[in-house]
Amino acid sequence: MTNEMGFNNFKAFGEKIQTFSKKPITLIYGPNSVGKSSLIHLIGFFNKVEEVINDKYETTSLSNFDISILLQKISLGGIENFIHKKDSENKTIKLVSITDNYERILELRKSLSIGMEEYYLGISKIEYRKDNKLLLTMYVSEAGFKVELNFEHNAIKEFIKETKGEFEKNFKRKEKYIKLAKLQIADSDDIATKLVKDFCTELHNEFYSKNQNFEYIEPMRFYPERGEIPPEFDDTRIIYDLNDWFTNEKLNLPYEIDIAKCRAHKEDKNESDVFIDKRSNTHVHLREMGLGISQLIPVMAKIFDSRDSIIAIEQPELHLHPLLQMEIADEFIKSYKNYDNIFIIETHSEHLLLRIMKRMRHTAEDREGRDKTLDLTPDDVCLLYVDNNGEFTYINELELDDDGSLLDPWPNGFFEEGHKERFY
Known about the structure:
Structural class: alpha+beta
Mean pLDDT: 88
Distance between the termini: 48 Å
Oligomer: single chain
Shape: elongated
């Protein structure tokens, strides 16, 4: 299973490979306009490439594949818009996956196939490394794969030894590559080729992960006009989940959803005042409730509706009171624990992080009476700080202790503004 990922030459990020831990809840902080959104887009892109490898690994389709569906989801535009400096002719993107045993580096480039449009990419090379040394390289083309083994690596020596002479008997060392039309075993394959295919498949399986939907919620969300209701209200099941959450006494929200009116809206668009203000027992439209609630609904609907998905959200705290920001953090944890959802959160909210830290502290203390469905450890949370040093954009992963305390100082005094305003 992959526990770290890395990349280069993607949008704001340049040639230097950036790596970070792969955990169920990732929080991304940093100044404006440094590349936080680029990192969210990268994770969606990485997920799509993993899906392609899972589905097409045994074919030659890795040399060019369509990513247009992903581009529609996260509005990247064509390949020119997400390769660093828009230099798709000279730059390649590297995607790095790291497990306990191996490292895999995928090299991607703009598809060279004639007639391919701007949303086609290809994997040109796959490197596998072990113990910080190159193990083998697979060169990918429409014609197939060429595998170059590093015969000096101890793992390759062990592989050859385990074949009990069969590999050396069938492979001519003067040949630099072993050519594979496909990675499926064929009757016509010689013994050396079959052995190499088996070995490559074992490496591939080391990095295999099940396909997951990538769900993306952008920072500027739908704000219904009069006569409109949130599109999420078309799903009755989601309306019930949202209503249960809105009416939770802990939130102290004065609203509930009139589910009958939501259903009536399908027939009569004038029925758009679908919330009840419990203070005055009056039906109101979202535009009478402030902007924050309208921006919260898509976030909560995605949390309640998703199963076994990667959910990327930019600024979930948009226009929200600190209490609601903290309660959203709890919903991220519940969704991860109950429904195997992974969260990638780009945020400026200190309140959201403080709630995450609190849950870690209560878990470490084994606090009596706590809600154990909210237990968290450092293995569950990745805290990233993105910034630019004037030369390149970089990722700094900050370490959290078991009790949720930060072991690394915030770079550049992030979150120290209040202290400065009071005492300087």
